[in-house]
Write a structure and sequence with these properties.
Length: about 80
């Protein structure tokens, strides 16, 4: 008998009358799907981390401020008003 056949009525299975027959096949291959939201924080983490991004901004601000202070001191030392 083919496992795809539908067994109805009082058909005998292994010599025992049955009203219902169920064939269950287990497969080792399966697919699992997952939904994940890719946020800005995930993007920054992929680029090197949030800490490095904050550190970069802080260093850029300090560089700009330090450059202005140094040039201001040089100019004030060279030219007296």
């Amino acid at each position: 008998m083919n496992t795809a056949d539908i067994v109805t009525g009082l058909e005998a299975i292994d010599g025992i009358p049955a009203l219902l027959r169920m064939d269950i096949r287990l497969d080792t291959a399966y697919m699992q799907y997952e939904k994940d939201v890719y946020t800005l924080m995930n993007f920054l983490s992929d680029l090197g981390g949030i800490f490095n991004a904050i550190l970069f901004l802080f260093r850029a601000l300090i560089h700009i401020f330090h450059e202005n202070v140094v040039f201001g001191r040089i100019l004030s030392a060279l030219f007296t008003v």
